[in-house]
Amino acid sequence: MADTSRFGRLVQKRRQELGMSQSDVRLAGGPSDLTLRKIERGTTTRPDYVTLAKLDDALRWTPGSAGRAFEGGDPTPLPDPHQGSDSAATVGTGRPPEPITATEHGVFLRTDALADLTKKGRALDDLPGLSEEQATGVAELRQAIDRLTRAWIVHQAEIARRNDTLNDLILVLDDHLRAPPSKAGTEQDQDDLRYLRWLAGYEVANPKDAKRYETRFLKSVGQNRTS
Question: Residue 184's CB: how many other CB atoms inside 10 A?
């Protein structure tokens, strides 16, 4: 069983090391003040992957650190931000300066903005009395949000596999990884889910798919190293 009191102390210690108030953590992309108070007091249940990812982001921990810490391990801080960067799209820790930032290369959606979008998308499932047309529209919107979330998850899994920290990320995404690929959506949606499971070490029945996923992963590694 996870030691929630220990986890809370680790979060509080890291926040204080960074000189941040609880509100500062929220403004940096972390969970709400109420959620953070519960975490630091040790009165929370297991946070979902969105909350854990928000903690990693706001407290400047490597992806998967909060999940590892909750399970009894130790989080890994990111290196101190490199000073003097002249990038117009990022500041400090490399986060886009605004939740949604448009550049000549595209639109960047920050992790905290994605987490908030995911939360609001889930709330749509509880809307009562929808007509058939409205329900179809909600389902299509939820599918679009799921695609954005999955793209983030796949990217984090590629980084974790490259850096040999996959076990940390699996702790965060365990429920997501155990779920079978949904029959909803396109074949590309289902293939992305199978690729994510392959990244996490799940066996792939089709050897051709495994080879294709290996090629996709190696391509992502090459892109990450040159970025």
Answer: 11
Within the chain, all domains assigned CATH 1.10.260.40 are found at 4-70
Burial status of residue 124 (CB atoms within 10 A of its CB: 0-12, 13-18, 19 or more) = middle
Cα angle vertex 133, ends 132, 137, to 5°?
Answer: 115
CA torsion sign for 120, 124, 125, 126 is: positive
**Structure tokens of 216?**
């996709």
pLDDT at 87 over 50: no
Q: Which stretches of the chain are assigned E, i.e. beta strand?
A: 100-103, 106-109
185 DSSP 8-state letter: S
| Side chain identity, residue 171 | L
* CATH architecture, domain defined by 4-70: Orthogonal Bundle (1.10)
CA pair distance 187, 181, nearest whole angstrom: 10
Q: Which of 192, 196, 206, 156 is nearest to 176 (CA)?
A: 196
pLDDT for res 118: 81
Q: Would you say residue 154 has pLDDT above 90? A: no
